[in-house]
Amino acid sequence: MKLQGKVAVITGASMGIGEAIARLFLAEGAKLVLCARDSARVEAAAQRMGAAPGQVLTMACDVSQRDQVQALAQAALREFSRIDIWVNNAGFGLNDSIEKMDIGQLRTMFDTNYFGVMECMQTAIPIMRQQGGGEIVNISSVAGHICVAYMSGYGATKHALNALGEAGRMELGRYNINVLTVCPGYIATDFASNMLKGSNPQRVGASVKYGVGADVVARATLNGMLKRKRQVVTPWHYWLAIKLNENLPGLVEWAIRRSMKPTSQVLAEAAAKQK
After folding, report:
1. Has residue 255 been placed in a domain?
2. What is the pLDDT of residues 143-200, one digit of tens each?
3. Percent of the chain beyond pLDDT 90?
4. Which of 9, 142, 185, 247 is the most exposed place for a label (fewest CB within 10 A)?
């Protein structure tokens, strides 16, 4: 088992990518501390994994609140005596035009997607330094490389998260702490359904229909962490889109504008495809 004896804290672990990472880490021998804002939902996720007694601790935690993050870390230390891995997965999306976007919702999203990661990193780093090392994994997005219409606020949080990962890796390497940034493309989870939708939401037409499973992200995360990589883009072919955007941004902009549809239509088409 690749994570035997390791203790991993995973935020946003009640569904989707967070749950998939937790399931894989558990299978690889790790002990887990799982959190989400809703304690019942994260407990249900733990039960779905079929963990043995003493393998998993679940807690409610709003990562934008420092006192709750610190309580999470202290509970992990009381239960398992150490924290080897901290996965920052908690986050959500906001789908609206720049013109109509609610600024209050935008600030709330930054509080979770970016400042929440900062709260967690500032809590985890002293613990890992004292232990002599550790792994911090930030779940970002391909949207942190390629801006998408009607997702500007979400993309901004992920651009910021990419920058945080790059700087954190340089600062923390001397303490044997690696920072891995994971950038998934379109993933078949409930993210699109659960994201906040403003008065004018639109999405890329194929964005939901062709997403891969969250298990793909989990496997890429584990492999990238074990190799102490800087960044992982998954599925791998999104690297091609990123490079195309770097060299021919006008073409990518044209393709995105051409493929926009009302979000309700995109979700309905995806639901019909799954039947």
Report:
1. no
2. 999 989 999 999 999 999 999 999 999 999 999 999 999 999 988 777 777 778 887 7
3. 80
4. 247
Question: Is 256 a member of any domain?
Answer: no
**Total domain count, the chain:** 1
- Its domain, for residue 130, covers 7-198+211-243
Determine whether 175 is an active site residue: no
DSSP reduced 3-state for 45: helix
Backbone torsions φ then ψ of 34, nearest 5 degrees: -110, 140
CATH number of the domain enclosing 113: 3.40.50.720
pLDDT digits (tens, 9 = 90+) for 58-71: 999 999 999 999 99
Helices (H) and strands (E) in the chain, counts: 11, 11
| Residue 78, Cβ density class (10 Å: 0-12 exposed, 13-18 middle, ≥19 buried) | exposed
What does each C-alpha distance from 36 to 12, 146, 172, 257 come to in angstroms? 5, 28, 27, 35
Query: For the sheet containing 31-36, what is the strand order?
Result: 56-60, 31-36, 7-10, 85-88, 134-139, 177-184, 231-234
The residue from 114, 154, 186, 238 that is catalytic is 154
Does some domain include residue 115? yes
The model scores a pTM over 0.85: yes
Domain membership flag for residue 190:
yes
Lookup: tokens for 76:
């992990």
